[in-house]
Write a structure and sequence with these properties.
Blueprint: H1 2-10, H2 45-52, H3 65-75, H4 80-88, H5 93-113, H6 143-150, H7 157-167, H8 179-205, H9 222-230, H10 236-244, H11 258-271, H12 290-293, H13 296-300, H14 324-335, H15 339-360, H16 369-380, H17 408-427, H18 450-457, H19 466-480, H20 489-502, H21 506-511, E1 517-520, E2 523-529, E3 535-540, H22 542-554, H23 581-596, H24 601-608, H25 613-625, H26 630-637, H27 642-645, H28 653-664
Antiparallel strand pairs: 1-2, 2-3
Length: 665
Amino acid sequence: MLARHQELSRRRPCGGTQPAPRQPHEATRPMSDVDVTRAKAGTSARRAAAASRRLKFFSTQRVGLHQLAYLRGLAEGLEGAELAKRYLGIDHAAQLARVHRETVELVRAVARRSGHRKWRLIGIEIPAAAPAPTDGAQALPTVSQWAEEQGLDDWGEDELLTLFQERFADQLARPPSDPQQARREARNQALREARLELLKDLQNTVVEAATPQDDVAAWFSGEIVRRLRVAGAVTLGDLQARIRRGGRWWRGIPAIGAGKAQLIAAHVQRLLAAAPAAALPADAPRCASLSEIGTAGRDLAALGRGGANRAPMREYRVLQADTDVEAVEAWLKVRCTSKKTRISYEREMRRFRLWLWGSRRHALSDATVEDCQAYIELLRAVPESWMSSRNVGPGEPGWAPFRTQPSVPSQQLAINILAGAFGWLRRTGYLQDDPWEAVNRRLGDADDDWESDDDVDDPTTRAFTPAAWAALVDQVAIDAAQPKTAAGAPRMAWLLQFCEATGLRADELLRARRGSLVQRDGLWRLRVVGKGRRRRRIPVPRRIIELTRSYFDSRGLDFNACDRRTPLLGATTATDQQITYSALSQAFKGLLRRAAVRLPPDDAQVLRGASLHWLRHTHGTRSAERGMSANDIQTNFGHADVRTATGYTRAQLRRRAELIEEAFG
């Protein structure tokens, strides 16, 4: 037994003290399971360091089947790199060494806590088994198998090994003249068997199957857990739902790109492959799956002929529609004066009708007050199964009604659109009553929603603060000196100043031409055709006209002599051509991201979430702060109702706080 103790003490546990570096003269040997702890030769120090900084995905608190499968494969002599790629999602040598060590340490700790006396066998180096016998030779049984066959279970280990060596001396890899080597190989075989039995027992006793309700901290390392939680993925179910949306689901998770996202998705798939779907809370709003609803066009087209809320006498109705589809189409034709408006209205109506039919088995003309209230609750927390980022059309595989959880302003807009549609259908006689009149359509009236109410009603919260505006202006100046951004800097400089002074909508700005700017009595005006094809004239300050002249000069155009059809805002490649909305939005988002680094973290996060429309809100806010009346703001904006402009008469929170501090501080 002393010899056995000395032999085991010479074996190095994986993850323990690091071995001395191999000397150049040492001969190479076949790869064993401990070799996976070493970075492969040829990897440069820089690549290895970069790889080691990648996320530590699989440092976990629990032992999973994938980890035991990896260790079992190593114990059976399979190639370590392939096992790590299959079971752990690791394909880089630097990662492989670290993750192997952490996996061994975790499983050994769990085995030790579970009372397994042989826990040290996990991860130790055991020389490979002797080569398999050649053709015609009889394969050796294991020591334990031979002892069981011979009825020698009660014999001591040393005695068994001696008898085994004598019985199979001719078949051992080493010649009979080397009994010590034969004894060592037999002992190694016994250790390999004991390790496999230990892993099998752990699989049956300590392995915990992952569930969607598990905290991500149980299956990921602390580094990635912090990043996932920042993005709202607290449980494995949250993360799985985000992945199932498709598209670039990892956007918004710090320091996660396409490559790391692929590893995370594969790991979640392994963990939850056999997990049951999470049950909805008992009080959750009923929302049928899209498979229950079917294709929207096929199932919803004929609905509404016998709707419970249909006006009874057709001859007295102004609208002569027979089905809900016909009625909705008539509403869209009357109310939508632009393609953009029609897309928005049609989308909200489609969502509501899909939910009505799939979850309540009601047509549009069957909708009740309870249906409307339940749909408002649905908008507050859209089920994950109803969201997808895949760029496909309605009814196509992978499509879902929502792309993300709607913000509070988006929820309010959807409610307003639906309420307006039902009001119109009632006024035209298609519906007998309007169920939306009986529900509270104003979001944020509840005590716990006061913050959302502020976001909905106060457009000044979506205006650039003075600090953010200064950061944008400074960033444009920096961009002008950088080769990569110099071409677009004049356009962005003009965009900021022109939109702050005029408050144009993005589509109005893109349609504006040189001929839209006219001078009368020494004053410049911009002729605009806005929403509802309403025409208006916006005064343009002389300073902005001079900036426009300079901007035209940067494009190689003469402001006074150029074609009247020349866009005010041009593309960088073809200066006399109109820029598209997507290109302008992308360029503006890039400016926001670059400028955000100049602000405190909270302000930077707000700035990164801004959009082109914030320029319009900024104009309204600055106009109100400088004494312009609500009626004048309404006229400049082209709003049909002056109440829409009254929101800008409230000073920004920062300005109000300064006034309160000055008065009472």
